[in-house]
Amino acid sequence: MRIFKELIKNKLAMISLVFLSLFYLGAVFADFFSPYPYHEDDIEYLWSPPTRIHFFDFHKRIFFRPFVYKYKFYIDQYYRRIYYEDRSKVYPIKFFVHGFKYKLLGIIETDLHLFGVSGTKLFLLGADSKGRDLFSRILYGSRVSLSIGLIGASISFFIGILVGAISGYFGGRVDNVIMRLVEMMMMVPAFYLMLALRASFPPNLSSTQVYLLIIVILSFIGWASIARVIRGMALSLRERDYIYAAKVLGVSDFKIIFRHIIPHTFSYALVAIVLSIPGYILGEAALSLLGLGIQEPQASWGNLLSSALGIVNIKIFPWILTPGIFIVVSSMCFYILGESLRDILDPKKKISI
Q1: What is the mean pLDDT of residues 51-70?
Q2: Which segments of 93-163 are extended strands (E)?
Q3: What CATH superfamily classification does 137-352 receive?
């Protein structure tokens, strides 16, 4: 409760929290917010630019609901599609419309969507090289990218906290063996280790298998650094009076670790988990961007950026960089939120209060 009260006072942290809440809300209800399925393509709208939303038609008449015009194209001298608005007919944007069927939260079968247009296509963020709605694919891709960040960080920190607490509490040979293993893990550059681990598995895996594999790889890489820090905290905590009292009362070593050592590291762990999530999001994006992660037609923020590898595509179709904006904004929000939590949970600040 105190943490939330302190966060409310920090406007930048609250803005970050609002953005992250919107991102995760969009991920959970991606089916409802998406006007089209993530894999639905249309050759009539290859590289279609973002659809312009109007409230006044070209005769300056006012419409009481937003509308769009149908996009048509012609081929220029460089064999490129040049899209233009056909203003002969108005297509109103309707809310709470019926479209493709899906299961809301994986339970309720429905076909209700937040918005849609009849008679033409509405691309809020443009279309990709196959005529697929980029807005819908970003929403579905957020499920992969954002969930990998949370799950991967949670798993790696659970392993790191457990290993670090055991190493620091027992000390001696146990500490030496574990710390040498940790140092070996930290010596190898994380990105190259990630590529090597992914390359060691067969390429023809299903999307679900690749998703789980990325979580395992990123968790395997991330636990070592947190284990080293927790080990240092455990070395200090094991000298406290209440630890000696627990030993005198006959409490087992592992009960002491789980009841007294690990709970006293939660404040640090909370901050470290939040600060580490952007690394997992960027790790998934890097693998998918290089073709080693989530494969088509499944969407993630990383593989959506694969079209932006060519400078010509970026120049002609700048909207393909939109997934990168979501990656940058979400990463910045996590960093800001993590730094704010660090200030709130700072022991020196507690003492001064």
Answers
A1: 76
A2: 94-104, 108-116
A3: MetI-like (1.10.3720.10)
Share of the chain above pLDDT 90, in %: 27
Give the whole-angstrom CA distance, residue 57 versus residue 87. Answer: 8
Torsion over CA of 232, 235, 238 and 239, rounded to 10 degrees? -120
Measured CA to CA in angstroms, residue 191 lies from 186, 195, 218 at distances of 11, 6, 10
β-partners of residue 95 are 115
**End-to-end C-alpha distance for the chain, whole angstroms:** 16
Question: Residue 126 corresponds to which amino acid?
Answer: G
Helix or strand holding residue 86 (H, E): strand 81-92
pLDDT of residue 59: 60
Q: Is beta strand 81-92 parallel, antiparallel or unpaired with respect to 62-75? A: antiparallel
What is the location of CATH 1.10.3720.10 in the chain? 137-352
User: How far from 2 is each of 128, 192, 342, CA to CA, in Å?
Assistant: 46, 41, 13
Instruction: Give whole-number Cα distances, 50 to 46, 121, 278, 312, in Å.
Output: 12, 10, 28, 18
Dump pLDDT digits (tens) for 306-341: 888 778 888 888 999 999 999 999 999 999 998 888
Beta strands in 105-143 (DSSP E): 108-116
Two tokens, residue 27? 């991920």
Q: Is the pLDDT of residue 254 over 60?
A: yes
pLDDT band at 347; cut points 50, 70, 90: low
> Tell me, what DSSP letter sits at residue 295?
P
Kind and range of the H or E element at 64? strand 62-75
Neighbours of 74 (CB within 10 A): 9
Record the pTM.
Answer: 0.86
H or E, element range at 85: strand 81-92
Report d(CA 11, CA 186) in Å as an integer: 36
